[in-house]
Amino acid sequence: MNPVSPEKTMLKNPSPEHRAPRKDQVIATRKSCAADGVGLSHYILTERKGH
Amino acid sequence: MAVTHASRDAGNRPSGSHLNTGEGPTLLPLDIGHPAYMGLVDPDTAFWALVHKDRLADALEGGELLTSFHQKRASFQEEMQTLRFGLQPSAVYFNPTDRCNLDCSYCYIPQTMRRHGTEMSREKLLEALRLLQGHFAKTLPPSRRPRVIFHGAEPLLNKEALFAGIAAYNNEFDFGVQTNATLLDGEAVDFLTSRGVSIGLSLDGIRAETTHRTRKSWAGNLNVHAKVLEAMERLAGYPYYSVIVTVTRENASELPQMVEFLHERQVPNCLLNMTRCTLPAAREVRLADEEAATPFIAALERSHELFRQSGRKLVVANFANILLAILAPTARRLMCDISPCGGGRAFFALAANGDLFPCSEFIGLDSFRGGNLFAGGLDAALTSPAFHRVTGRTVETIDPCRRCAIRHFCGSPCPAEAHEMNGGMDRPGAFCAFYEEQTRYAFRLIADGIADDFLWDGWDDGVVTLFDKVGPLVTPEVSPP
């Protein structure tokens, strides 16, 4: 069985101060990748094994 | 050069220069319920910007944001076109049996099928995998491994055939199993985890009393809750594992506690799904649309607190998918919340007798049967009128979706609900208000800079940035009148 890697899941600096107001006047981003989602509401594959 | 009000009104700008007219960019304002930010959304391309409220008018008058968007709009449109209409099926939801040892209140498979239905023989299951492999070898690039998810009904009722299929074809497919966990004993867990099979379980409560309100055995004598907990103990630490919580009025008030329960047991992913309303029995336990967001968002907030306290995430995958639909539309994992949905075009469903449907949700609705894998074949089913009814359902033909700013973050799911409960494929799905609130909440997280806390670590590995304007608003220099 493959354990979940702690480095992948652990927050480096947990802090309750996580909602500091942003100073940015505009926030607009868009990212992209090859579309390969095949999940439905009865099942979801979260990882991208073999891709 | 300074741009004066007079010159900007002189009508000498080319077509495409003005917001919301002619060839210009289209951006609808979206109140996201944030104290500082207002959203702007182009519904067709799913492009968005959050603008500080005191700079909103300046942003709409022109400047770098609008210019940059206008330059990229065609490529965003093309990306959405490919995502919505250009995919090849690459996954099969495979029911190796119609039967189930449970009688859940909201199941979308008719009760008679689950009680008396067909079971696929070992030979037929292996033949089905051979046929599917042959199909995908023709349609997918060699680098893309198709997925087969054994689903149900309860697939482990046909464990011998199912495991034979996984053993024979584990190099050809990425396999998954969605199970109610009542038959997921130590031997089954060892078999599946040693082969890297993704596993989904179902659990509806933190106590047996809650779980058993909806996840019922036929004779009422199976301790479903305890069985699932035993399976969760066996799976602790396995990374390819998730738990589906079907949200109904029986468990909605316990959702934050459910998140605590799953987080404590190191579940890496969960789905907090509003029950699908395709069959009438499910509508008896559903939450009203306007009641769904409050407990759901409370659960998300609790998951975030737990992450901040412990440093370990429990990703609520259906909400993470809404965030992805906003941040990177092509990175979405779920294909329900897009139109057309993934049914019949990103995946399809195979019933135990070989019948083919666009999605598991349609198994039991005979008018959506597209054909049979063993008689007539897959190609005929994929191009059948039954499949086209689902693959042709777009938000542009649905009212009010056609004028909704968030139509590509929602997709008006689900077509089976729309058809069976709301009267047609041109009707919205069951949870419009819920999607509105989810989307607004997602934008508020983005505004607060904490969206990544709700996503899988590494979600953007291999993802490229197409647009990135974060900072001061750059507008044309305007001379005072």
Low-confidence spans of chain A: 1-17
Beta content of chain B comes to 5-15%
Tally of strands of chain A: 1
CATH superfamily assignment of the domain at 87-372 in chain B? Aldolase class I
What order do the strands of the largest sheet of chain B run in, or round the barrel if closed?
10-9-8-7-6-5-4-11-12-13
Oligomer category: heterodimer
Entry keywords:
heterodimer, A: 51 residues, mainly beta, 1 helix, elongated, disordered N terminus, B: 481 residues, alpha/beta, TIM Barrel, ten-stranded mixed beta sheet, three-stranded antiparallel beta sheet, 14 strands, 37% helix, globular
What is the gist of this entry?
The complex is a heterodimer of chains A (51) and B (481). With 51 residues, chain A is mainly beta. Chain A contains 1 helix and 1 strand; from the N terminus they run αβ.
Topology overview:
The complex is a heterodimer of chains A (51) and B (481).
Chain A: H1 6-9, E1 26-32
Chain B: H1 5-8, E1 28-30, E2 37-42, E3 47-52, H2 56-61, H3 64-85, E4 91-94, H4 111-116, H5 122-139, E5 147-150, H6 159-169, E6 174-178, H7 186-194, E7 198-202, H8 208-214, H9 224-235, E8 241-247, H10 255-264, E9 269-274, H11 280-283, H12 289-310, E10 315-316, H13 317-327, E11 347-350, E12 355-357, E13 371-372, H14 378-382, H15 385-391, H16 407-410, H17 415-420, H18 432-447, E14 464-471
Parallel strand pairs in B: 4-5, 4-11, 5-6, 6-7, 7-8, 8-9, 9-10
Antiparallel strand pairs in B: 1-2, 2-3, 11-12, 12-13
Helix pairs in contact in B: 5-6, 10-12, 12-18, 13-18
